[in-house]
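Q: Trace token order:
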Amino acid sequence: MNMDAKKLDVIIIGGGQSALATAYFLRRTQLSFLILDAGEKPGGAWRHGWDSLRLFSPAAWSSIPGWMMPPSEDEYPSRDHVISYLAQYEARYQFPIERPVRVTSVERIEGGLRVHAGDRSWDAQTVVSATGTWSDPCIPEYPGSELFAGTQIHSAHYMNSQPFAGKRVLVVGGGNSGAQILAEVSTVAEATWVTPTEPLFLPDEVDGRVLFERATERWKAQQEGRVIEQPVGGLGDIVMVPAVVEARERGVLWAKRPFERFTEAGVIWADGTETQVDAVIWCTGFKPALNHLAKLGVLNKDGRVDVQRTHSLLEPRLWLVGYGEWTGSASATLIGITRTARATAEEIESVLMQQC
């Protein structure tokens, strides 16, 4: 453990659910740690979600370790309910947090890592990167996109349907964000859903609870070297939350295959026809926000970090949590982060104890 008062045992970069879950388990050790959050207030990426965003699971199935999310008025908690829960959670456990602190780089020093944020820096024996993906939205390249005179916005910056009222809108992306935003925008606009393949809809009775149970069973089977048969359906398939069911009942929950290119006024489809479009909403996912690790030389060609579980293979003082399946099964979900966060905290404690 750390014997130098000026050097922390652990710095956690990020202030969302993954950072808080990791902090919960570090708090149960004797290790010193600090959370550096780029946000001005609690809530992590949830603060940037659109106004009507809802979870796929009830509150009891959307909790991080130690304290259950309070029940919500509706079956599926709203964005604001999640933000309130995370704010109460960090206050409940009185985590050491500094915000707003936007980390710009991490470099190696004798016996640890130095974390930089502008003209400020902190030293620690180990670093946990928990910055998520929300700050690095992914927009695919399409021929002629620079010619298009309409509006283009990523779901990361979509708040509500009001700016699109009465317009012709393409919603691009086959996941849950695409389905939910299509459902909302289609109530006020002429909306067309564009997906690379036919969307995969889960049965109405299947929600996040069922998906997490399946993911847990798969994880257990992998640990035991077993192969199990499960129904089709993964965390990326579309959950039939009430707004999406309502869109289906209105007959708007259908999708076209991608267009070929942009024009100034719209898009050209594969059959050569042109559609005039006022706006495109890209629901095309995110990349891991890892630019702050570039100086360490740990980023691979895909912009990720090669890990064993959550431990960097190239930098033994670095761990990554909450970026998706490559950092732990279901680790980018509220309920799924617990297993990964616990294992990460235990591994860090074990490594540092061996150095004493």
